[in-house]
Amino acid sequence: MILIHPPVARPSEPPAGIARLAGALKYHKIPATVIDVNIEGLLFLLDGCKKRTDTWTKGAMSRLKKNLSLLRSDQGYTNIDRYGRAVSDIS
Length: 91
Hints:
By secondary structure, this protein is mainly alpha-helical. Helix content is about 55%, strand content about 10%. A two-stranded parallel sheet has the order 1-2.
């Protein structure tokens, strides 16, 4: 079974329902995979920002790959200033 989290929620507030449903299925030994298309939708939208020409956006887009990598690792959460800058650039 595939459970799909659609692109309708903020990534900082994913709905607990899909995790709960996946847990219940696992408890009953029913295999399930959860796919978060919310993050895929956001990454698609970020990709469209590359066409912007203002200085701030160009700088933020040049650091996008690095910032996403940082936030996907433990290192992204060891320094509050670095974390804040990465989130601000991505935002």
